[in-house]
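Narrative summary of target 7.
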Amino acid sequence: MGLFDGYNVASSGMSAQRTRVNVVTANIANAQTTHTLEGGPYRKKNVVFQEILLNQQEANKSKTSFEGKEKFVPPLSGVAIREVIDAKGEPVMKYEPSHPDANEDGYVAYPNINPVIEMVDLLEATKSYEANVSAFTTHKTIDTQTLDILKG
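Modeled conformation, tokenized:
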């Protein structure tokens, strides 16, 4: 494990959660959008994460020897955004005949976005981001104290 591997893992998590926060806030902001450039109501977006290997060299040398015994050492991994996808939920139809986007029966298609669920997702993404910041800070503190010990 290299000196900066812990920083790389924490920063990959922060980057992924930052994207998730941006997507969730876009969902909240567009919860009442009935007309988009593509036509129809706004479609809720979801973030799909994937695990990534941060050091391919470690993946190639996946065994180490200690006291004559070989032991498997998993490669260091982080997280990345695989894709941002549209949710599959159907729009919510509300009867509003005077609305400019109403169909011939007077119904308007609204995005199937529950603001309470989106706020919980936003809170979870924020807490995950904070946990990665904490891991980054802890790693920095350990490295600083190690350097102080080595200097003294």
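The helical segments are 5-29, 56-60, 115-151.
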